[in-house]
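User: quick one, fold this
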Amino acid sequence: MDLDLIQVSLLAILQGLTEFLPISSSGHLLLPSLLLGWADQGLGFDVAVHVGTLLAVLAYFRSDIRRLLVAWFLSLGSGNSSNDSKLVWLVIIATLPAGIAGLLFSDVLEQYARSVLIVAVTSIVFALLLLWSDRVGKQRRELFDLNWKQALFIGIGQMLALIPGTSRSGITMTAALFCNLNRQAAARFSFLLAIPIILASGLLKSIEVLNSDSGLAVAEDWLILVYAAGVSALVAFSCIHFFLRLIESIGFLPFVIYRIVLGSLLLAVYFV
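Assistant:
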């Protein structure tokens, strides 16, 4: 790996900070190589930090996940559904569009969408869309009020997160707010949606690493990758905790302002 310990630490912190905040982790991870000339961190590093964020969300929602899965499996056997088993089905429905789109278009987007201009434009456009949804959404629905059509709408929105700079959590929260979920419910559904998406993405990237010539190099760097995963997990866990505690009081405006400022600076870098 052509990164020193400080670079690895900063990238792992960046992944942990941005994975669950509505500001785009993929867009931010592109910036050090595009703007500072850092070596590309490689697929092995991407897998490691995504494993870290996956562990964070699994740890934070461990009791919820256990309860939901038990209810879902019981419903499969008895045919009697509950709010918990229904929520699992809604997560599955909302995951399918992005999963299919990822399989079909991820290689094309990886090749053609990794640019400062695209990250800048998507940062601004989807920031304004998030602000709009936060203003016009009635925010009167709880998580269990969600229906399958709304879950599918959120899932279709999640497809756009394949474009760097969009933010998976940002676009899913935006779609959920348009469905009149309150901020807390929108955030929790977005975080639950992260589990299958990060898991599927991590598995695909792991297979790609194992089938590539970089597999041996990844094995040699296993200690630094474990360190990166641990750092991203700790930071991501903290982000989830404080975001859920503060989102009702602070709203999404600070993240909208940050994204617009970031996008504007990137546009200036691109055109100057």
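User: anything notable?
Assistant: The mean pLDDT is 88.
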